[in-house]
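Bit of a strange request maybe. I'm writing a small parser for structure token strings and I need a real example to test against, not something I typed by hand. Could someone generate the tokens for this chain?
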Amino acid sequence: MLLSLQLLNSFPSFMGFIPGPHHRLIPNAMQAKDFILEQAKEHRATLEPNNPRDFIDCFYIKMDQEKHHHASEFDTENLFISTLDLFAAGTETTSTTLRFGFLILLKYPEIEEKVHEEIDQVVGRSRRPCMADRGQMPYTDAVLHEIQRFISLVPLSIPHAVVKDTPFRQYIIPKGTTVIPDLTSVLHDSKEFPNPTKFDPQHFLNKDGSFRKSDYFMPFSAGKRICAGEGLARMELFLFFTTILQNFKLKPLMDPKEIDITPLMSGLTRVPQTYKLCAVPR
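Reply from user aminoacidic:
Good idea to test on real output. This should exercise your parser:
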């Protein structure tokens, strides 16, 4: 499937004549479109402006507020596109990061054990983790940051274009030029992260065990057009990751030394090797 998608990106016309799973891409996209339009229709019929339920409701409220503005960007087409972006990009990237993270923990059980200890100390077993806990869990926070740094999920980010002639160092980037940032070159910078190809939570920890911020941590891209869902993604990763590890211990089905955590390319993203695990209740 990974190879089919890569070939489809490179040779779309040619791949139309080749059988394979890539032919499901367009039908699946149409199903997603129908689902979103159905949800949007239902939301419009039951909209309560003083009691918005979600993103679609808020978008409709803004549409109504700007319905007399001819230049408004709040229209039905942008509602569909924005919802699709949040639904697709927001779910796939988060789930892939978690799958990758659990694979890494299978290879390094000593790291998982330290996360278990911190969860038990700060959260315990009687309640679920919440975002207020993150500030008191520097090791777990460092592990999550290191997962994102190590895997470099979207190595070349998403292409953008400059809207005007833009000076950059001794160069001028002409208006309309497509810019593709190489995020991996920053996330794997050897001066900022010693031995960058090795998974090591110490990259984000000070000597006293406190969390260490880094300006080189940019898995969500850089600049003003950084990923709009960064805050939501960081929240989801922390809550899902800690809640699962609060309740389960991950058990590999093979010798941890034999586990391969080398990323595979799939279109624009990097994904983990296929693997199996046992989640044993704690």
